[in-house]
């Protein structure tokens, strides 16, 4: 089965292949916003040969694996259990899949690995590149489809022939593939930068499903090309390297002329009808993969590099677990003397299996026996507010220029603070010490008032500025914030922590403060505002484990854009 051009054509063929072998292919990762385009894919899911079951990103273990039916147990006096969603093979539909927590991802991945017949359809609604499905699931789902850029006019109703799908499922166990097909798929995956061995195996299963759909008992070249486009191409992390040109290879002696032209013609005819094993299959599959490589592959790779360099900073701050407020997460055993809130239902479920034994052993007549080991405490998860600490160099002749840029950047970022839940603080260092000019705030009026009369000039106590930022970061983290340090300087530190003018000691003190910031796990970024990039400042960024951003002669708009890009990466 060949695969014509067009995203929607790949969607249709991919869903038909999934309907043939849902358990073997694992499922579908569908990246698309809620809308009519995605609804057309959802309308085709009932054609899959398994019941549909919807999950929630915060679903608990009891709903997944089953547990005690509390009402039936208490009314009958006997332990009554109920089955979970994973008890029988099903199509597990997971909306808002980009919010899947690592724990749920691990449980679903384990269910797919057990080979119990489950198939996962992950509806990824992420708005940003970093909002995506956990890798533990994307690695196990054969089909990856991105419909964000697909207009409604290029879609149509997906045709799913029930009789043809049933015949293909009956034919699937007898479909064969060549001995070297899996080897060629594995080599192609390596050339595309895919480091998972599951990908070529899923591609082979997809090719067999496509062959069964076409009514064939053996996988052919078209089936493999279509499987590569459906399974391997969306996973590519690099453009495949080109093979060396023929003129770069060592020269070889020309073959002797054939004395029999008729025999030569016969050999050519035989070459045109050679079998699949004799064709250059890797080259054919490579061209098929190149035809459907993501158009934004380079942009995605750049975003991933920025995310690694920025320490995975997110716009909403770090996640915290507590027992007061936030999104509910599964309860845990605990004690009530800590001020925690009791989860009554979970406590009763924990106590129910032991009621018969406890009634027999107890000397008191009670309808319900609960012990401290049964207590289950409610838990919640919330995201903390992010604090962006600007550490601004206010020294030297160019101080007023840098301060004006910092003021403008802070005001621009504060305009977005309400939507991004950011707080901003400002530390200025000049002369012999550093000063906290603006404590953490989201007030634009207060920020302008504090920045208006900020003076400049004097030495460059870089270490003092970093020390003040570290102390503020520690305090803000204790108050539930997630601090990030943004250093704006030209890198010419000349004042040590003790206030003496000693460049060597000043550099050592700055390195020690940067090491302390990194040891405490605070993300940072270093913005070089000098006329030319400073080597010592780049080395300081490496000590901080932070991205180094040289921005000579940057205005407030460029500075704000650079900081936002580093934070969103």
From TrEMBL:
Residues 240-250 have a biased composition (Acidic residues). Keywords: ATP-binding, Bacteriochlorophyll biosynthesis, Chlorophyll biosynthesis, Ligase, Nucleotide-binding, Photosynthesis. Residues 239-275, 307-336 are annotated as: Disordered. Its EC number is 6.6.1.1. It comes from the Bacteria. Pfam families: AAA_lid_2 (PF17863), VWA_2 (PF13519). Signal peptide: none annotated. Involved in bacteriochlorophyll biosynthesis; introduces a magnesium ion into protoporphyrin IX to yield Mg-protoporphyrin IX. This is Mg-protoporphyrin IX chelatase. The lineage of its organism: Bacteria, Pseudomonadati, Pseudomonadota, Alphaproteobacteria, Rhodobacterales.
């Amino acid at each position: 089965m060949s695969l014509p051009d067009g995203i929607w054509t790949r969607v249709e063929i991919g869903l038909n292949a999934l309907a043939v072998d849902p358990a073997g292919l694992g499922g579908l990762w569908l990246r698309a916003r809620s809308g009519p385009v995605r609804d057309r894919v959802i309308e085709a899911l009932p054609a899959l040969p398994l019941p549909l079951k919807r999950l929630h990103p915060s679903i608990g273990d009891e709903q997944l694996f089953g547990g005690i039916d509390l009402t039936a147990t208490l009314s009958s006096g006997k332990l009554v259990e109920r089955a979970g969603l994973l008890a029988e093979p099903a199509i597990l539909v997971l909306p808002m899949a980009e919010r899947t927590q690592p724990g749920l991802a691990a449980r679903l991945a384990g269910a797919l690995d057990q080979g119990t017949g489950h198939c996962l359809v992950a509806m990824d609604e992420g708005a940003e590149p970093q909002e995506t499905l956990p890798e533990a699931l994307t690695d196990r789902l054969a089909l990856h489809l991105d419909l964000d850029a697909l207009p409604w006019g290029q879609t149509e109703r997906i045709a799913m022939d029930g009789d043809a799908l049933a015949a293909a499922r009956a034919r699937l166990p007898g479909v064969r593939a060549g001995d070297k097909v899996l080897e060629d798929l594995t080599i192609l995956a390596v050339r595309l930068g895919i480091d998972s061995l599951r990908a070529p195996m899923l591609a082979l299963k997809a090719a067999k499903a496509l062959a069964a759909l076409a009514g064939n008992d053996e996988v052919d070249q078209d089936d493999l090309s279509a499987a590569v486009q459906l399974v391997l191409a969306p996973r590519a992390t690099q453009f495949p390297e080109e093979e060396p040109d023929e003129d770069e290879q060592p020269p070889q002696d020309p073959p002797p002329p054939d004395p029999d032209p008729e025999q030569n013609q016969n050999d050519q005819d035989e070459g045109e009808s050679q079998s699949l094993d004799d064709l250059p299959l890797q080259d054919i599959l490579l061209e098929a993969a190149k035809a459907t490589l993501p158009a934004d592959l380079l942009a995605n790779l750049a975003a991933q590099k920025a995310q690694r360099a920025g320490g995975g900073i997110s716009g909403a701050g770090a996640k915290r677990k507590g027992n007061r407020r936030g999104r509910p997460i599964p309860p845990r055993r605990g004690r009530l003397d800590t001020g925690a809130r009791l989860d009554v239902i979970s406590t009763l479920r924990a106590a129910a299996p032991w009621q018969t034994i406890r009634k027999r052993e107890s000397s008191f007549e009670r309808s319900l026996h609960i012990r401290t080991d049964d207590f289950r405490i409610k838990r919640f998860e919330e995201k903390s507010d992010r604090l962006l600490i600007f550490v601004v160099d206010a020294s030297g002749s160019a101080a007023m220029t840098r301060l004006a840029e910092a003021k403008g950047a802070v005001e621009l970022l504060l305009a977005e603070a309400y939507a991004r839940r950011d707080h901003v603080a400002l530390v200025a260092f000049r002369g012999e010490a550093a000063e906290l000019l603006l404590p953490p705030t989201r007030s634009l009026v207060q920020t302008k008032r504090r920045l208006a009369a900020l003076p400049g000039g004097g030495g460059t106590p870089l270490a003092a500025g970093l020390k003040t930022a570290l102390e503020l970061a520690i305090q803000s983290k204790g108050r539930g914030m997630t601090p990030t340090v943004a250093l704006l300087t030209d890198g010419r530190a000349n004042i040590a922590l003790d206030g003496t003018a000693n460049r060597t000691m000043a550099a050592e003190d700055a390195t020690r403060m940067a090491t302390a910031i990194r040891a405490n796990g605070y993300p940072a970024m270093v913005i070089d505002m000098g006329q030319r990039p400073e080597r010592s400042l780049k080395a300081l960024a490496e000590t901080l484990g932070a991205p180094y951003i040289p921005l000579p002669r940057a205005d407030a708009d460029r500075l704000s854009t650079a900081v936002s890009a580093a934070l969103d990466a």
